Amino acid sequence: MNIVIIGYRASGKTRVGRRVAQRLGWPYVDVDRGIEKATNKTIKQIFEENGEPYYRQVEAGVAREMLGGDGQVVSFGGGTLMEPPNQALINHHVLVVYLEAPVDVLWQRAQADPESEKNRPPLLKSKGGREEIVDMLKKRAPVYEQFANLTLDATQDPEFLVDRVIEALPQAGPARDG
């Protein structure tokens, strides 16, 4: 079994995923970091130089490779689960954990992360950034909810979230904690 952490940018996927992996003694892998390693470019560079279709193609290959193993924690990028090939990857032997956070929290966290603007596609300034999060969540949240076995309030203490993920491992059935 693998654990896949999903959610929007700045929801805490990396922080929680790393801690879950550490507690379980499992490897932690991040799809975005895998894409950067495979292309020797930042996510921002890929979007600017090659476009989103190319990015999604590389992303699908990296996600497939990462989920080929067992007993690991995998953080998906914010849009990874929007692609049907990636959805098919999580149908068996995977606990999918959705870290859900309000728009204002996501916006504040994204603004506070100095790496975000340097390495990721920018939140559209023309939309004020925050409005882009609102628009994207309208599309993504229903998909996140559809595929999640466990939905957690990402504003909770990270150690609390880690405990909930580990507790959910034996059953991997629909659950909601918020």
Number of helices: 9
CATH fold-type name: Rossmann fold
**CATH class descriptor:** Alpha Beta
CATH superfamily grouping: P-loop containing nucleotide triphosphate hydrolases
> What is the approximate shape?
globular
Q: Write down the overall mean pLDDT.
A: 88
- N to C succession of SSEs: EHEHHHEHEHHHEHE
- What is the tally of beta strands? 6
Please state the second-level CATH architecture.
Answer: 3-Layer(aba) Sandwich
Query: Which percent band covers the strand fraction?
Result: 5-15%
| Unreliable parts | 172-178
Cα(first) to Cα(last) distance is 24 Å
Q: What gyration radius follows from the Cα positions, in whole Å?
A: 15 Å
Main structural class: alpha/beta
Largest sheet: 6 strands, parallel
In helices, the fraction of residues equals 40-55%
Brief digest:
This protein has 178 residues and is of the alpha/beta class.
List the main descriptive attributes of the protein structure presented here.
Rossmann fold; six-stranded parallel β-sheet; 6 strands; 178 residues; single chain; 9 helices; alpha/beta; 53% helix; globular
